[in-house]
């Protein structure tokens, strides 16, 4: 089983993903680029007019012609400011529209790819961390786009223009600014690359804080039951302390960079103005040129200082994005073949043909497992914990792929059909159903999402959950809480059964579907299940053997293989594992059953399968 990858996506992979979602909005990109160019042209032109304005003030008398020229220059300067305003509006509106669309696309595509990862993928990771990564992935796009398109690009245009204009006035001034800009930008990139590991570590620490918080919140009831508040506080405090330490190191690194940037700024301003004074003394520049130089320097300083801030934002966003892109670049462990077709079921026959399943050669969970289930046959899988019973159903639903052999439904290898069509023909009722934090109507309708309200209510009545639902203040519009925590275990189980009733698939899998019910509810549900099972191929995982006495065939699974099979009466009178399991359970019979000689009188419920832990191995969520 894979561990959560620590490898982050490369810069190229991040930009490829973002560019693929951006380029489809070419018209908006063009409008953004046009607005930015308009802004830089206006910003560069305004100081040129002001240069002439101050030269006239310094060298001419205030006659009518001079006043007319000064007024014209002021109007032209005002027009440049207006042009800048228009460019800002064009760029701003276009950016807002495009970013909102792309960010929505990114959220949609990230969710679509993430949710298709295998069961194995999710049981090794914190749900809170995955949620955090999806959110950061979308927000990082906004930061990266603003940094590159709204900061780097316009700064490049302006600084290039400023160097060109100053070069026309004096090649020495233009060259001086060019050399300084190259040194400054090189320094910024160099220190940012040195600091990038700190940013990555900070992003990971941020994700760990979210994961630890989500883990504690989702297990709040366990914390209360075991008086674990102080213990969990200590665990969370250790995670936060790691975050604090790495964040402080990152901030100190920024402060050192700002110290150096300040020296750069002081140096270039004094150097260029000193050079301009020398040129002025030689009559090669005018007073207006000082205005031009100062205007360009101040704007260049502001732009390059913002570049320093934006570089920090850029690398933080990149670190955030690379976590999710890494997941997007992780191939799905279980995926449809390129030529996969929809499964068409003409018969509910299920065949496990020499199936072996393992995560490593030393610990096989199923070993050359062979089982053929006729269409309409009802079988039960029994055996000790860890025998492989739950694995059989997970493989049937293709939550994992087998390493050897094949699983066939109606003669079709399930690895060659789409997962969606496979799961449409199998209805599954787990031992501990998990519900969405949605209404009861929505949770039951999930079995068949086009079902009418009347059909949903009819299924609820069959599953005997209409009784408790009708007593709720909001009845079917009642929200059930995260994972259905507002309902009792038995109520959740009945909702899950109602969902399966509504789905009405030809193959039904029940994982001890009555384990959470009281005796009265269990009797009612058994009637509903009897109706549900009519005409279907049924696979029941049984921990409580008294619930499967009427099955057509009972399969005894031990160490990943079939140890025995037959009816209840056949197996209970054989000297084998089934008789041993039966001998420690008694009572709770459904209908007319056979109680063999020597049974105990007390009922002991078998423990829930621990195969999920086997599948996960010794790994912990990252």
Describe the structure.
With 622 residues, this protein is of the alpha/beta class. It has two domains: 11-325, ABC transporter type 1, transmembrane domain (ABC transporter transmembrane region fold, Up-down Bundle), CATH 1.20.1560; 350-425 and 505-613, 3-Layer(aba) Sandwich (Rossmann fold), CATH 3.40.50.300. Helices cover 60% and strands 9% of the residues. It is built from 19 helices and ten strands. Strands 6-7-8-3-9-10 form a six-stranded mixed sheet, sandwiched between helices. A four-stranded antiparallel sheet has the order 2-1-4-5, covered by helices on one side. Strand 4 (404-409) and strand 5 (412-413) form a beta hairpin.
The gist of it:
The chain is an alpha/beta fold and 622 residues long.
Outline the fold blueprint.
Elements (H helix, E strand, L loop, with lengths): L10 H12 L3 H34 L4 H51 L4 H4 L4 H43 L1 H48 L1 H6 L3 H53 L5 H42 L21 E9 L5 E10 L4 E5 L6 H8 L7 E6 L2 E2 L5 H6 L1 E4 L10 H6 L7 H10 L3 H5 L18 H15 L3 E5 L7 H15 L3 E5 L11 E6 L2 E6 L1 H5 L4 H7 L27 H6 L6
Parallel strand pairs: 3-8, 3-9, 6-7, 7-8
Antiparallel strand pairs: 1-2, 1-4, 4-5, 9-10
Helix pairs in contact: 1-9, 2-3, 2-5, 2-9, 3-5, 5-6, 5-9, 6-8, 6-9, 8-9, 13-15, 15-16
């Amino acid at each position: 089983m894979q561990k959560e990858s620590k490898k982050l996506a490369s810069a190229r992979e991040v930009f490829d993903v973002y560019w693929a979602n951006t380029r489809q909005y070419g018209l908006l990109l063009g409008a953004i680029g046009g607005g930015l160019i308009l802004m830089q042209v206006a910003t560069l032109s305004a100081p040129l007019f002001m240069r002439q304005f101050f030269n006239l003030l310094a060298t001419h008398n205030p006659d009518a012609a001079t006043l007319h020229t000064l007024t014209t220059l002021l109007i032209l300067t005002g027009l440049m400011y207006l042009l800048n305003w228009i460019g800002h509006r064009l760029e701003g509106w276009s950016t807002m529209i495009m970013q909102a669309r792309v960010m929505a696309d990114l959220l949609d595509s990230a969710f679509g790819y993430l949710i298709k990862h295998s069961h194995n993928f999710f049981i090794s990771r914190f749900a809170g961390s995955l949620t955090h990564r999806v959110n950061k992935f979308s927000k990082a796009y906004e930061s990266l786009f603003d940094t590159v398109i709204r900061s780097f690009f316009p700064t490049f245009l302006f600084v290039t223009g400023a160097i060109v204009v100053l070069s026309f006035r004096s090649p020495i001034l233009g060259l001086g600014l060019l050399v300084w800009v190259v040194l400054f930008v090189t320094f910024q990139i160099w220190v940012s690359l040195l600091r990038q590991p700190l940013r990555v570590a900070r992003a990971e620490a941020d994700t760990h804080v979210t994961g630890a918080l989500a883990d504690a919140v989702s297990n709040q009831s366990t914390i209360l039951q075991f008086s674990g508040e102080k213990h969990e506080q200590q665990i969370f405090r250790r995670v936060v302390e790691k975050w604090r330490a790495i964040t402080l190191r990152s901030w100190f690194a920024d402060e050192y960079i700002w110290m150096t940037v300040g020296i750069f700024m002081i140096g270039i301003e004094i150097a260029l103005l000193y050079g301009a004074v020398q040129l002025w003394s030689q009559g090669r520049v005018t007073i207006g040129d000082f205005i031009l130089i100062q205007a360009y320097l101040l704007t260049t300083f502001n732009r390059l200082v913002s570049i320093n801030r934006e570089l920090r934002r850029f690398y933080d966003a990149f670190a955030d994005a690379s976590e999710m892109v890494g997941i997007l670049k992780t191939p799905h462990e279980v995926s449809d073949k390129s030529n996969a077709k929809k499964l068409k079921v003409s018969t509910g026959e299920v065949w496990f043909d020499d199936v072996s399943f393992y995560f490593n050669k030393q610990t096989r969970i199923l070993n050359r497992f062979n089982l053929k289930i006729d269409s309409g046959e009802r079988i039960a899988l029994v055996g000790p914990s860890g025998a492989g019973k739950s694995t059989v159903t997970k493989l049937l639903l293709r939550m994992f792929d087998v390493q050897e052999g094949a699983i066939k439904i109606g003669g079709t290898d399930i690895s060659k059909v789409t997962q969606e069509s496979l799961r449409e023909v199998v209805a599954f009722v787990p031992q501990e159903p998990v519900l969405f934090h949605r209404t009861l109507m929505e949770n039951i309708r999930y079995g068949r999402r086009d079902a009418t309200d009347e059909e949903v209510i009819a299924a609820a009545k069959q599953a005997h959950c209409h009784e408790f639902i009708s007593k709720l203040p909001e009845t079917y519009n009642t929200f059930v809480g995260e994972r259905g925590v507002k309902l009792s275990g038995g109520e959740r189980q009945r909702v899950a059964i109602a969902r399966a009733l509504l789905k009405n698939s030809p193959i039904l899998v029940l994982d001890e579907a009555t384990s959470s019910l009281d005796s009265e509810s269990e009797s009612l549900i058994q009637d509903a299940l009897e109706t549900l099972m009519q005409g279907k191929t049924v696979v029941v995982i049984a921990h409580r053997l008294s619930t499967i006495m009427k099955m057509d065939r009972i399969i005894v699974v031990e160490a990943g293989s079939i140890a025995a099979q037959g009816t209840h009466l056949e197996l209970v009178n054989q000297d084998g594992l089934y008789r041993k399991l039966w001998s420690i359970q008694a009572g709770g019979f459904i209908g007319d059953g056979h109680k063999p000689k020597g049974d105990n009188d007390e009922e002991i419920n078998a423990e829930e399968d621990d195969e999920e832990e086997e599948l996960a191995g010794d790994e912990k969520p990252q």
